[in-house]
Write a sequence for this structure.
């Protein structure tokens, strides 16, 4: 992902040693903050869907796939950016160059395909509710997700053959660099194929499908859950304005819009640099482009909590469970350290009776 903006020089970003102290502090702080929040948030999304039975819906299966892809982007693209800023060169060696480059593109492409998949699922659920009972099932969603990851995994194998480590001399200092093997003329067709398949086409499809969904919701509002009875659907939809009968659809539309906006600076920069004799590589603007990408992968859990009452409640329940489990572990450690005194045994006895033991 980082390599695309500097294809003119056929090298990755962040290899220079002349980063200012101000840049290092700001970049490390912001990247660490965004990636930290994003990693925790996306892990919470996966745990919520896996642990809560009522959250295991077809749509949420796609959101788990998106969360896994975002985790991959944050760890494979965001975290190495911190070491780039601190050390001014590639520090992960040849195997790290191949592996990290591969997982960067795999995460990016899988997230794009996951967004496309839940967009199609929402279109079928809203515009074709009868067909949705057979098409929008959890088992079908799992098969589609497996297909998405299988295809993107195979597609991204080419980056294992396009990446390599090279030594550069800068100010009489030898620096290790994770770069592309091929020249700019060979890389551009690959990039524009990637750009079209995983950015332009998904956004065009999303624009068309969400336009059709909006038209249906305005003219004849339908429920977001196709498995409910038709009479219940009618009662629920007559109580609320058309656009508010499908909060899940609104939430997913926001995810798509942010995907388009936050990826736009980087995509635009690469397209522009592809036609310039000397690529535009301003350090601060490149940092801005990176931060937008990391933010796109980190912000989705925040959107789920802000716009979905079910997700918000499930998140709170999971946090309570994790907190109680942590307290339980601490009590157990104290008990074993105290030789299981009578008071400690009583505490453990109360603890095992259930969540009402918070007075301990």
């Amino acid at each position: 992902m980082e390599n695309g903006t500097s294809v003119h020089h056929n090298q990755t970003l962040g290899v220079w040693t002349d980063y200012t102290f101000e840049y290092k502090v700001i970049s490390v702080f912001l990247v660490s903050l965004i990636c930290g929040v994003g990693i925790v948030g996306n892990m919470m999304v996966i745990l919520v869907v896996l642990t809560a039975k009522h959250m295991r819906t077809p749509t949420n299966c796609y959101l788990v796939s998106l969360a896994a892809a975002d985790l991959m982007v944050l760890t494979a693209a965001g975290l190495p950016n911190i070491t780039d800023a601190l050390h001014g060169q590639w520090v992960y060696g040849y195997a790290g160059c191949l592996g990290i480059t591969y997982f960067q593109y795999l995460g990016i492409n899988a997230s794009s395909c996951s967004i496309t998949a839940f967009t199609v699922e929402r279109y079928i659920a809203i515009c074709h509710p009868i067909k949705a009972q057979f098409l929008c099932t959890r088992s079908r969603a799992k098969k589609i997700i497996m297909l998405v990851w299988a295809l993107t995994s195979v597609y991204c194998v080419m980056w294992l053959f396009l990446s390599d480590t090279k030594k550069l001399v800068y100010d009489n200092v030898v620096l290790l660099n994770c770069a592309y093997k091929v020249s700019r003329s060979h890389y551009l067709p690959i990039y524009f194929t990637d750009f079209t398949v995983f950015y332009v086409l998904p956004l065009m499809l999303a624009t068309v499908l969400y336009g059709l969904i909006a038209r249906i919701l305005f003219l004849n509002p339908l429920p977001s859950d196709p498995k409910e009875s038709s009479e219940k659907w009618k009662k629920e939809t007559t109580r609320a304005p058309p656009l508010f009968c499908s909060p899940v659809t609104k939430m997913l539309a926001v995810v798509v819009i942010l995907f388009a906006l936050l990826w736009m600076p980087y995509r635009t920069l690469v397209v522009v640099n592809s036609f310039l004799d000397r690529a535009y590589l301003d350090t601060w603007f490149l940092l801005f482009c990176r931060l937008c990408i990391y933010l796109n992968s980190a912000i989705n859990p925040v959107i789920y909590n802000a716009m979905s009452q079910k997700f918000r409640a499930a998140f709170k329940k999971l946090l309570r469970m994790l907190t109680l489990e942590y307290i339980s572990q601490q009590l157990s450690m104290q008990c074993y350290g105290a030789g299981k005194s009578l008071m400690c045994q009583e505490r453990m006895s109360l603890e095992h009776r259930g969540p009402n033991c918070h007075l301990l």
